[in-house]
Structure formats: C-alpha cells, structure tokens
Amino acid sequence: MEPIASQSTEMRIYNFDSSDKVLGIDDQIGKSVENYGCRQIIGHRGDFHLIMKDFALEQGVKIRLGERVEVYDPSQPSITLSSGEIIQSDVVIIADGVRSKGRTTVLGYEDKPQASGYAIYRSFMSGDLLRDDPLTNVGDVAESWTKEATKDDVLACLEGWDPAVRRVWEKMPSVIDWKLVYRPCLDKWVADSGLITLMGDAAHPFLPTSTQGASQAIEDGATIAKCLSKCAGNIPLALHTYFEIRHDYVAEAQATGIKQREIWHNLHDEDSKAFKKEFDINATMMQNLYLWKNDAEKLVDEKWDEVSEIVKQRLSVNSG
C-alpha cells in the first residue's frame, strides 16, 4: 500500500475564493502513527483495487469479471448468472453497491435509495496537465444518477472562485454530473435463511462528505471473515453476529457524513458569500475520532463470545 500512498503530513482547507485564506489545517495525517498506531493511507482508488485484486489472486480467489447476477437464492444459497449458470456455495456476500439488486432478496421487498438533494461534478485527468501550468503546479496537491456535463456548467458554478481551481476544471477532458443518493443504514442485512448477507454500500450507502464509504466496506469484509473463522460452520450465527457488531457503529459513521455535509454547505451566506460562522477544524476532527480508533478485527475478538451467545439464543427461539 505504501507505494500508492500520499506522503502529505497535513491537509489544508482553503476558502473557495482564494488560496491565501486558510480555514484550517488537519494535521492528523502526519500524526496518525503516533496517535493511533497506524498509518493513514490515502491513494487513488484504482490503484487500491489493483492491490486488492492481486492479493486476492495470491490467496487463490477466483475472480470473474463481466458477469451479471440475475437471481440470489437465499435457501441454497446460490446465485444465477445471466448465462443461466448457477453457482452454489456455503455463504453469499452481496456487495453490489448503492443500487443493490441483492437488497431486495435480503429485505423481501424493493428498497430504493433516496435522492440527497445534492450533486457533485466529477472528473479525472493526468497530473501532468496540472504540472505543466504554473497556476496549478503548486507542488504537493494536498439509477442513473450520472450524466455528462460541460465545462461551462462547472465554470458557471465556480464564478468568483480561486483562479487555480477554475484552471484545473478548464483542463478536464470530460465532466460527469453525479447525483448523490443516500438511504439510512438498513436495519436488516442478513436474509431470513441466515446464508446471505449485504455489506458495504448495499447495506449502508455513504455520502462523499463522510470519506468513509470504501473503508467501512473493508471493515465489513474484515468483520465477516473474522466471524466466519469463529463460527465452527454455523453460517447464520456468523452473519447475524457480524450484523450486531457492525450495525450501530456503521449507522453512526454514516450520520457523520450528513453532519459534515451540513457544515461544508452552510459556512457562507448564499447571496453575499460572507462567512455565517467560523469553521472549527479541531471540532470537526474530534467528531471523527472514534473512526480512527476502531479496529474491526480486534472488535470481533473482544465481542464475539458475548454477542454470538445472544444471537445463538435468539436464533434458537426463532427456529423453535
């Protein structure tokens, strides 16, 4: 992971109209090892996917791309591909994102995510295009819900912004208007059979302002793996214990994104653009402190005996 990680030790937050107006400095990146015993890894998601893929292949995991799941059968459990092929296994873990098809199988009814009322412009470009321009080369640059947008759309929104920000968007080869969708954390992640579960955005979509979507999905995966290693073949016990250990924590983390969104979008008066309130970066960081301290695998070790016993008793009552 280290080769893809940013080497920045802090993140500076500037006012929208000038790189001279520093609203706050988040120095937790550089202090993470000292304060929490672990390095914060910030890198490009595509590079991270490649690392995860290579590791999975080393462990003997079979990866099949370009396949579409048409049916999840919680009783087998199994999946049916668009080709008609049926694949059976001991457990099915559904990680198909915010537009999850598997969510309907688990819940027993269709549950669509909600529009958040917010949208963002997204794009991707080579860093060389920024380094070649003195204005943007500053050294270390610390259903369908998408449609193609134009640079003019973006630049109209950036009227009065810092010239360097506008220049970056002028160089973008293409732009996507990305509608942000959301739904509260589901209260049910595990199918009634106990053999299929949801994880990641399929169970708890995160807004970008939380900066937690990918990391919480990884913690879900680590928790499931740990629970399966402890369940002695009792899949329903493992999956229901995973849910009990993760649900409240994830719901709180998800709510953090909403709080952050309200902070970021309400600093300025809409008409005058003047500050309505001061931005307290330290207070914002303290709200997220519990996220830094959480160790998903250690938490399973600490809570397995207690939580799995409660789950075992509940499953026994329900089956009786």
UniProtKB/TrEMBL annotation:
**Keyword annotations from UniProtKB, A to Z:** Monooxygenase, Oxidoreductase
Give the matching InterPro entries: FAD-dep_Monooxygenase_BioMet, FAD/NAD-bd_sf
* GO MF term list: monooxygenase activity
Family from the record: Belongs to the paxM FAD-dependent monooxygenase family.
- Give the PANTHER family listed for this entry: MONOOXYGENASE, MONOOXYGENASE, PUTATIVE (AFU_ORTHOLOGUE AFUA_6G12060)-RELATED
Q: What is this protein called?
A: Monooxygenase
